[in-house]
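hey
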């Protein structure tokens, strides 16, 4: 997978090497802002996709920008933008290097399989439609839903990889994962609501 002659894994490795004490979201946007939204969405998917969404608040820190980027994709904007309060959000350089290190083997594997195909699914029009899917998945990631952050992050990462390399097959695979992720989130929410309703009913009956 390459962008302007450079592999995505190489871009992320350079960002990790250049990191000092903290990595602000604004730094990532500045580094990747002249590239496709797909690469930004991929980068912001990685923390949750590699299983670091369990760090308190991390899923929201990266999920909310993805929702904002998704809206911008829907409207066909070319330049990504984040509000200042999100641009200033950051994580430690050590955590960022851990994210890149964990993602690197999978990215290398994908880079060997990717090739342009089914390119209608990666066209500008398709990208705007995919923005709707990204928005739904990003909202799920950003919400504190137990066990539901990882699948949508994986889905967004795979779709993003397909967009970056114009590989419609990967977009399709990501969409299938996305449908499964949405179903899991709905199931978790349904079970949670049912449990709350059951507990409330039990309390109203006096615990009998």
């Amino acid at each position: 997978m390459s962008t302007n002659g450079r592999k995505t894994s190489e871009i992320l490795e350079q960002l990790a090497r250049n990191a000092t004490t903290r990595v602000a979201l604004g730094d990532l946007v500045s580094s990747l802002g002249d590239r496709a939204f797909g690469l930004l969405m991929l980068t912001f998917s990685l923390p949750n996709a590699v299983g670091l969404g369990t760090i308190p608040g991390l899923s929201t820190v990266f999920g909310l920008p993805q929702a904002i980027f998704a809206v911008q994709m829907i409207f066909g904007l070319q330049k990504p933008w984040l509000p200042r309060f999100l641009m200033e959000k950051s994580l430690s350089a050590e955590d960022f290097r851990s994210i890149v290190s964990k993602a690197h083997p999978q990215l290398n594997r994908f880079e060997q399989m990717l090739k342009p195909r089914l390119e209608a699914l990666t066209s500008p029009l398709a990208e705007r439609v995919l923005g709707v899917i990204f928005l739904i998945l990003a909202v799920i990631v950003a919400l504190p839903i137990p066990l539901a952050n990882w699948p949508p992050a994986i889905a967004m990462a795979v779709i993003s990889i397909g967009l970056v390399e114009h590989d419609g097959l990967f977009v399709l695979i990501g969409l299938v994962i996305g449908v499964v992720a949405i179903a899991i989130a709905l199931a978790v929410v349904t079970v949670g609501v049912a449990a709350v309703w059951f507990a409330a009913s039990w309390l109203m009956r006096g615990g009998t």
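The CA atoms of residues 26 and 85 lie 10 Å apart. The longest helix spans residues 168-204.
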